[in-house]
Please model this.
Amino acid sequence: MPSNIRDVVAEEFSSVNDFIVEQLHSNVELVENIGHYIINAGGKRMRPLLVLLSARACFPDSSTPTNAIKLAAVIEFIHTATLLHDDVVDMSAMRRGRPTANEQWNNPSSVLVGDFMYSRAFQVLVGLNSMEIMKVIADTTNTIAEGEVLQLLNKHRTDITEAEYQRVIEDKTAVLFAAASECGAIVAGCPQEQREALRLAGLHLGMAFQLVDDALDYDGDAEALGKNVGDDLAEGKPTLPLIHAMANCNEEEAELIRQCVSKGGSEHLQEVIRIIKDSGALAYTRQRAHAEAEAARRQLSTLADSTYRQALYDMCELAVARIS
Model:
Protein backbone atom coordinates (compact mmCIF):
# COMPACT_ATOMS: atom_id res chain seq x y z
CA MET A 1 0.00 0.00 0.00
CA PRO A 2 1.56 3.35 -1.03
CA SER A 3 2.49 5.39 2.03
CA ASN A 4 0.60 8.44 0.78
CA ILE A 5 -2.73 6.61 1.21
CA ARG A 6 -1.87 5.46 4.72
CA ASP A 7 -0.43 8.88 5.59
CA VAL A 8 -3.89 10.41 5.42
CA VAL A 9 -4.91 8.34 8.46
CA ALA A 10 -1.44 7.43 9.75
CA GLU A 11 -2.18 7.88 13.45
CA GLU A 12 -5.42 5.93 13.25
CA PHE A 13 -3.81 3.20 11.15
CA SER A 14 -1.09 2.78 13.79
CA SER A 15 -3.77 2.56 16.46
CA VAL A 16 -5.54 -0.17 14.50
CA ASN A 17 -2.34 -2.24 14.36
CA ASP A 18 -1.78 -1.76 18.10
CA PHE A 19 -5.35 -2.79 18.84
CA ILE A 20 -5.04 -5.90 16.66
CA VAL A 21 -1.91 -7.01 18.54
CA GLU A 22 -3.68 -6.36 21.85
CA GLN A 23 -6.70 -8.43 20.81
CA LEU A 24 -4.56 -11.38 19.71
CA HIS A 25 -3.92 -12.17 23.36
CA SER A 26 -4.97 -15.67 24.34
CA ASN A 27 -4.28 -18.01 27.24
CA VAL A 28 -3.49 -20.65 24.63
CA GLU A 29 0.01 -20.16 23.25
CA LEU A 30 -0.69 -21.77 19.88
CA VAL A 31 -3.52 -19.32 19.24
CA GLU A 32 -1.21 -16.37 19.82
CA ASN A 33 1.61 -17.91 17.76
CA ILE A 34 -0.53 -18.53 14.69
CA GLY A 35 -2.41 -15.25 15.12
CA HIS A 36 0.78 -13.22 15.20
CA TYR A 37 2.25 -15.27 12.34
CA ILE A 38 -0.59 -14.49 9.94
CA ILE A 39 -1.10 -10.87 11.05
CA ASN A 40 2.63 -10.10 10.90
CA ALA A 41 2.84 -11.51 7.37
CA GLY A 42 1.93 -8.04 6.17
CA GLY A 43 -0.60 -7.47 3.43
CA LYS A 44 -2.07 -4.28 2.08
CA ARG A 45 -4.57 -3.77 4.92
CA MET A 46 -6.96 -2.36 2.32
CA ARG A 47 -10.07 -3.28 4.25
CA PRO A 48 -9.13 -1.57 7.55
CA LEU A 49 -8.04 1.46 5.54
CA LEU A 50 -11.44 1.51 3.86
CA VAL A 51 -13.07 1.72 7.28
CA LEU A 52 -10.88 4.63 8.39
CA LEU A 53 -11.12 6.59 5.15
CA SER A 54 -14.88 6.05 4.80
CA ALA A 55 -15.42 7.20 8.37
CA ARG A 56 -13.66 10.48 7.57
CA ALA A 57 -14.89 11.00 3.98
CA CYS A 58 -18.40 12.06 5.00
CA PHE A 59 -17.24 14.59 7.60
CA PRO A 60 -13.64 15.47 6.66
CA ASP A 61 -13.41 18.30 9.19
CA SER A 62 -14.38 16.08 12.12
CA SER A 63 -12.12 13.81 14.15
CA THR A 64 -12.03 10.06 13.54
CA PRO A 65 -14.78 8.29 15.51
CA THR A 66 -13.27 6.27 18.37
CA ASN A 67 -15.10 3.12 17.33
CA ALA A 68 -13.61 3.30 13.82
CA ILE A 69 -10.33 1.90 15.20
CA LYS A 70 -12.04 -1.12 16.72
CA LEU A 71 -14.22 -1.59 13.66
CA ALA A 72 -11.19 -1.58 11.36
CA ALA A 73 -9.63 -4.30 13.52
CA VAL A 74 -12.84 -6.34 13.33
CA ILE A 75 -12.73 -6.23 9.54
CA GLU A 76 -9.09 -7.35 9.54
CA PHE A 77 -9.83 -10.21 11.94
CA ILE A 78 -12.63 -11.44 9.69
CA HIS A 79 -10.39 -11.20 6.65
CA THR A 80 -7.62 -13.09 8.46
CA ALA A 81 -10.04 -15.82 9.50
CA THR A 82 -11.11 -16.31 5.88
CA LEU A 83 -7.45 -16.58 4.82
CA LEU A 84 -6.75 -19.24 7.42
CA HIS A 85 -9.78 -21.25 6.32
CA ASP A 86 -9.21 -20.68 2.59
CA ASP A 87 -5.66 -21.98 2.73
CA VAL A 88 -6.88 -25.20 4.31
CA VAL A 89 -9.70 -25.66 1.79
CA ASP A 90 -7.38 -24.86 -1.14
CA MET A 91 -4.47 -26.83 0.35
CA SER A 92 -2.27 -23.77 -0.24
CA ALA A 93 1.35 -23.89 0.84
CA MET A 94 2.38 -20.25 0.31
CA ARG A 95 0.85 -16.87 1.00
CA ARG A 96 2.51 -13.44 1.07
CA GLY A 97 5.84 -15.01 0.22
CA ARG A 98 6.08 -17.50 3.06
CA PRO A 99 4.49 -20.80 4.16
CA THR A 100 0.82 -20.65 5.03
CA ALA A 101 -0.22 -21.30 8.63
CA ASN A 102 -1.53 -24.75 7.72
CA GLU A 103 1.81 -25.56 6.09
CA GLN A 104 3.79 -24.19 9.03
CA TRP A 105 1.63 -25.97 11.64
CA ASN A 106 -1.24 -28.17 10.41
CA ASN A 107 -4.78 -27.97 9.05
CA PRO A 108 -6.70 -28.48 12.32
CA SER A 109 -4.73 -25.74 14.10
CA SER A 110 -5.23 -23.34 11.21
CA VAL A 111 -9.00 -23.93 11.12
CA LEU A 112 -9.41 -23.57 14.87
CA VAL A 113 -7.37 -20.36 15.06
CA GLY A 114 -9.49 -19.05 12.19
CA ASP A 115 -12.50 -19.75 14.38
CA PHE A 116 -10.80 -17.81 17.21
CA MET A 117 -10.34 -14.84 14.86
CA TYR A 118 -14.03 -14.89 13.94
CA SER A 119 -15.14 -15.11 17.56
CA ARG A 120 -12.73 -12.39 18.67
CA ALA A 121 -14.11 -10.12 15.93
CA PHE A 122 -17.63 -10.56 17.29
CA GLN A 123 -16.46 -10.02 20.86
CA VAL A 124 -15.11 -6.63 19.80
CA LEU A 125 -18.29 -5.93 17.84
CA VAL A 126 -20.42 -6.44 20.94
CA GLY A 127 -18.42 -3.69 22.60
CA LEU A 128 -19.36 -1.27 19.82
CA ASN A 129 -22.99 -1.56 20.94
CA SER A 130 -24.42 -1.04 17.45
CA MET A 131 -27.01 -3.50 16.20
CA GLU A 132 -26.83 -1.79 12.81
CA ILE A 133 -23.12 -2.56 12.42
CA MET A 134 -23.60 -6.02 13.94
CA LYS A 135 -26.23 -6.82 11.29
CA VAL A 136 -23.99 -5.73 8.42
CA ILE A 137 -21.05 -7.79 9.71
CA ALA A 138 -23.19 -10.85 10.52
CA ASP A 139 -24.82 -10.78 7.08
CA THR A 140 -21.43 -10.28 5.45
CA THR A 141 -19.73 -13.22 7.17
CA ASN A 142 -22.67 -15.42 6.23
CA THR A 143 -22.43 -14.34 2.59
CA ILE A 144 -18.67 -14.95 2.57
CA ALA A 145 -19.25 -18.50 3.80
CA GLU A 146 -21.80 -19.07 1.04
CA GLY A 147 -19.34 -17.68 -1.52
CA GLU A 148 -16.66 -20.07 -0.34
CA VAL A 149 -19.04 -23.00 -0.67
CA LEU A 150 -20.05 -21.87 -4.16
CA GLN A 151 -16.39 -21.65 -5.17
CA LEU A 152 -15.84 -25.16 -3.81
CA LEU A 153 -18.82 -26.46 -5.80
CA ASN A 154 -17.50 -24.76 -8.94
CA LYS A 155 -14.08 -26.39 -8.71
CA HIS A 156 -13.25 -28.53 -11.75
CA ARG A 157 -16.36 -27.29 -13.57
CA THR A 158 -15.80 -26.48 -17.23
CA ASP A 159 -19.30 -25.15 -17.90
CA ILE A 160 -19.31 -22.29 -15.39
CA THR A 161 -20.69 -19.03 -16.77
CA GLU A 162 -19.29 -15.56 -16.29
CA ALA A 163 -22.37 -14.67 -14.22
CA GLU A 164 -21.71 -17.60 -11.87
CA TYR A 165 -18.08 -16.56 -11.52
CA GLN A 166 -19.11 -12.99 -10.78
CA ARG A 167 -21.43 -14.15 -8.01
CA VAL A 168 -18.60 -16.10 -6.38
CA ILE A 169 -16.13 -13.21 -6.30
CA GLU A 170 -18.81 -10.81 -5.12
CA ASP A 171 -19.83 -13.10 -2.27
CA LYS A 172 -16.40 -14.29 -1.16
CA THR A 173 -14.38 -11.11 -1.67
CA ALA A 174 -16.25 -7.95 -2.61
CA VAL A 175 -18.83 -8.04 0.20
CA LEU A 176 -16.17 -7.57 2.88
CA PHE A 177 -14.88 -4.47 1.08
CA ALA A 178 -18.48 -3.24 0.96
CA ALA A 179 -18.96 -3.94 4.66
CA ALA A 180 -15.74 -2.09 5.51
CA SER A 181 -16.76 1.08 3.70
CA GLU A 182 -20.41 0.93 4.79
CA CYS A 183 -19.61 0.34 8.45
CA GLY A 184 -17.08 3.17 8.36
CA ALA A 185 -19.92 5.39 7.18
CA ILE A 186 -22.27 4.06 9.86
CA VAL A 187 -19.84 4.61 12.73
CA ALA A 188 -19.33 8.19 11.52
CA GLY A 189 -23.07 8.84 11.36
CA CYS A 190 -23.10 9.51 7.60
CA PRO A 191 -26.44 10.24 5.91
CA GLN A 192 -28.07 7.26 4.18
CA GLU A 193 -27.21 8.48 0.68
CA GLN A 194 -23.50 8.74 1.47
CA ARG A 195 -23.55 5.44 3.31
CA GLU A 196 -24.99 3.69 0.26
CA ALA A 197 -22.48 5.38 -2.05
CA LEU A 198 -19.61 4.18 0.12
CA ARG A 199 -21.05 0.67 0.30
CA LEU A 200 -21.27 0.46 -3.48
CA ALA A 201 -17.81 1.98 -3.88
CA GLY A 202 -16.42 -0.71 -1.60
CA LEU A 203 -18.27 -3.44 -3.48
CA HIS A 204 -16.93 -2.34 -6.87
CA LEU A 205 -13.43 -1.90 -5.44
CA GLY A 206 -13.55 -5.44 -4.09
CA MET A 207 -14.67 -6.77 -7.48
CA ALA A 208 -11.81 -4.93 -9.20
CA PHE A 209 -9.32 -6.24 -6.66
CA GLN A 210 -10.37 -9.87 -7.15
CA LEU A 211 -10.46 -9.59 -10.94
CA VAL A 212 -6.89 -8.30 -10.87
CA ASP A 213 -5.82 -11.13 -8.56
CA ASP A 214 -7.33 -13.67 -10.95
CA ALA A 215 -5.54 -12.10 -13.91
CA LEU A 216 -2.22 -12.00 -12.08
CA ASP A 217 -2.46 -15.73 -11.45
CA TYR A 218 -1.59 -16.11 -15.14
CA ASP A 219 0.41 -12.95 -15.71
CA GLY A 220 2.21 -12.17 -12.48
CA ASP A 221 5.50 -12.77 -10.75
CA ALA A 222 5.56 -15.39 -7.99
CA GLU A 223 7.85 -13.32 -5.78
CA ALA A 224 5.73 -10.19 -6.16
CA LEU A 225 2.49 -12.14 -5.72
CA GLY A 226 3.75 -14.00 -2.66
CA LYS A 227 2.27 -17.21 -4.07
CA ASN A 228 2.85 -19.52 -6.99
CA VAL A 229 1.70 -18.46 -10.46
CA GLY A 230 -0.93 -20.86 -11.76
CA ASP A 231 -2.34 -21.83 -8.36
CA ASP A 232 -5.91 -21.37 -9.62
CA LEU A 233 -5.35 -23.80 -12.48
CA ALA A 234 -3.63 -26.29 -10.18
CA GLU A 235 -6.67 -26.17 -7.90
CA GLY A 236 -9.13 -26.47 -10.78
CA LYS A 237 -10.66 -23.03 -10.21
CA PRO A 238 -12.39 -21.74 -13.37
CA THR A 239 -11.73 -18.01 -13.02
CA LEU A 240 -12.55 -15.36 -15.63
CA PRO A 241 -9.30 -15.71 -17.65
CA LEU A 242 -10.07 -19.40 -18.15
CA ILE A 243 -13.79 -18.88 -18.78
CA HIS A 244 -13.15 -16.22 -21.42
CA ALA A 245 -10.31 -18.19 -23.01
CA MET A 246 -12.46 -21.33 -23.40
CA ALA A 247 -15.10 -19.28 -25.18
CA ASN A 248 -12.66 -17.50 -27.50
CA CYS A 249 -10.00 -20.01 -28.56
CA ASN A 250 -10.13 -22.92 -31.00
CA GLU A 251 -11.67 -26.24 -30.00
CA GLU A 252 -8.35 -28.01 -29.48
CA GLU A 253 -7.16 -25.29 -27.12
CA ALA A 254 -10.51 -25.19 -25.32
CA GLU A 255 -10.35 -28.94 -24.78
CA LEU A 256 -6.89 -28.63 -23.24
CA ILE A 257 -8.17 -26.03 -20.78
CA ARG A 258 -11.22 -28.16 -19.96
CA GLN A 259 -8.98 -31.13 -19.19
CA CYS A 260 -6.70 -29.01 -17.00
CA VAL A 261 -9.64 -27.56 -15.07
CA SER A 262 -11.25 -30.99 -14.68
CA LYS A 263 -8.12 -32.68 -13.40
CA GLY A 264 -6.31 -29.81 -11.72
CA GLY A 265 -2.53 -29.63 -11.64
CA SER A 266 -0.10 -27.40 -13.52
CA GLU A 267 1.43 -29.80 -16.04
CA HIS A 268 0.24 -27.70 -19.00
CA LEU A 269 0.45 -24.31 -17.25
CA GLN A 270 2.68 -22.58 -19.80
CA GLU A 271 0.52 -23.69 -22.71
CA VAL A 272 -2.63 -22.55 -20.90
CA ILE A 273 -1.03 -19.17 -20.19
CA ARG A 274 -0.23 -18.81 -23.89
CA ILE A 275 -3.83 -19.62 -24.84
CA ILE A 276 -5.18 -17.17 -22.27
CA LYS A 277 -3.00 -14.37 -23.62
CA ASP A 278 -3.62 -15.18 -27.29
CA SER A 279 -7.39 -15.37 -26.80
CA GLY A 280 -7.53 -11.90 -25.28
CA ALA A 281 -8.73 -13.28 -21.94
CA LEU A 282 -6.21 -11.32 -19.89
CA ALA A 283 -7.04 -8.10 -21.71
CA TYR A 284 -10.74 -8.78 -21.12
CA THR A 285 -10.21 -9.44 -17.41
CA ARG A 286 -8.20 -6.21 -17.13
CA GLN A 287 -11.00 -4.35 -18.91
CA ARG A 288 -13.54 -5.72 -16.45
CA ALA A 289 -11.36 -4.73 -13.51
CA HIS A 290 -10.96 -1.18 -14.81
CA ALA A 291 -14.73 -0.94 -15.32
CA GLU A 292 -15.32 -1.95 -11.69
CA ALA A 293 -12.74 0.56 -10.45
CA GLU A 294 -14.41 3.27 -12.50
CA ALA A 295 -17.80 2.32 -11.05
CA ALA A 296 -16.29 2.72 -7.56
CA ARG A 297 -14.93 6.15 -8.47
CA ARG A 298 -18.36 7.24 -9.74
CA GLN A 299 -19.88 6.41 -6.37
CA LEU A 300 -17.12 8.30 -4.56
CA SER A 301 -17.68 11.36 -6.73
CA THR A 302 -20.94 11.96 -4.84
CA LEU A 303 -18.92 12.76 -1.69
CA ALA A 304 -17.48 16.18 -0.90
CA ASP A 305 -13.94 16.79 -2.07
CA SER A 306 -11.36 16.03 0.63
CA THR A 307 -8.02 14.32 1.18
CA TYR A 308 -9.97 11.27 2.39
CA ARG A 309 -12.01 11.02 -0.78
CA GLN A 310 -8.81 11.41 -2.79
CA ALA A 311 -7.21 8.59 -0.82
CA LEU A 312 -10.22 6.41 -1.67
CA TYR A 313 -9.77 7.34 -5.34
CA ASP A 314 -6.12 6.34 -4.99
CA MET A 315 -7.16 2.96 -3.64
CA CYS A 316 -9.22 2.41 -6.78
CA GLU A 317 -6.18 3.27 -8.88
CA LEU A 318 -4.00 0.96 -6.82
CA ALA A 319 -6.37 -1.96 -7.27
CA VAL A 320 -5.89 -1.97 -11.04
CA ALA A 321 -2.37 -0.52 -11.29
CA ARG A 322 -0.91 -3.98 -10.72
CA ILE A 323 -2.04 -5.03 -14.21
CA SER A 324 -2.03 -1.67 -16.04
